[in-house]
Write a structure and sequence with these properties.
alpha/beta; globular; single chain; six-stranded mixed β-sheet; about 35% helix; Rossmann fold
């Protein structure tokens, strides 16, 4: 069996509205092996994105312990979390989050400014990432010169450029037409299969979930096999 890359132990998450506690996740315990492609499904408000944000270290659990690799991220300081995220996590958003005044190359290069790589090394990694997603000929195009599917592939290249241990995708096909969505899902499956990337994806689309190895369903903050 592969080693567990992510381990959740009795993870709970609640939010507060004045004096009212609103539970979102309830005592989740499970592991995600290295090399897994996991899809998280469930109705709106079931806690899917909250769970993804906890794994990314963007949000903190209200209770329990959360490990990624050997790091217990639930106990890290904000500064340590920021450093950890920059080298460990690649995040893919539904709406791409590209900066419109930057080219594809410049958007993908952004995470590398948090490293100590020289300019030539940054260029090599950006060109490699854009080549992997099939956009080697779009380096100098701006987002408004690209299709939605191409914009999402630029966003995937940006997530890949630091060679992270874990790719997290929040509804990566939610803003795409059917063909572009299929292309993006085939790309994620390729990254998982050929590069061994561990992927955790939130989706409402059964066709997208069909590319994953494992599908888990969240319902009212509790987890069950789909």
């Amino acid at each position: 069996m592969p080693n567990a890359l992510v381990r959740l132990e009795n993870i709970s998450k609640s939010y507060w509205r004045d004096a009212l506690e609103i539970p979102v996740l309830r005592n989740l315990t499970f592991e995600i092996p290295e090399g897994e492609f996991l899809a998280l499904m469930g109705p709106s408000g079931s806690g899917k994105t909250t769970l993804l944000n906890l794994i990314a270290g963007i949000d903190r659990p209200s209770g329990g312990r959360l490990f990624v690799g050997r790091e217990e991220i639930s106990q890290m300081s904000e500064a340590a979390l920021a450093r950890w995220r920059s080298r460990t996590i690649g995040f893919i958003f539904q709406f791409y989050n590209l900066i419109p005044v930057l080219t594809a190359f410049e958007n993908v290069e952004l995470p590398l400014f948090l490293t100590d790589l020289r300019r030539s090394e940054r260029r090599r990694q950006v060109e490699t990432a854009l080549s992997v997603v099939g956009l080697a000929d779009r380096l100098h195009h701006y987002p408004n010169q690209l299709s939605g599917g191409q914009e999402q592939r630029v966003a995937i290249a940006r997530a890949l450029v630091t060679d992270p241990d874990l790719l997290l995708a929040d509804e990566p096909t939610g803003d795409l037409d059917k063909q572009s969505a299929e292309d993006v899902m085939h790309l994620l499956a390729f990254l998982n299969r050929e590069f061994g990337k561990t992927i955790v994806m939130v989706t409402h689309d059964p066709r997208a979930a069909g590319e994953a190895h494992t599908v888990l369903r969240l319902d009212k903050g509790e987890l069950a096999a789909a």
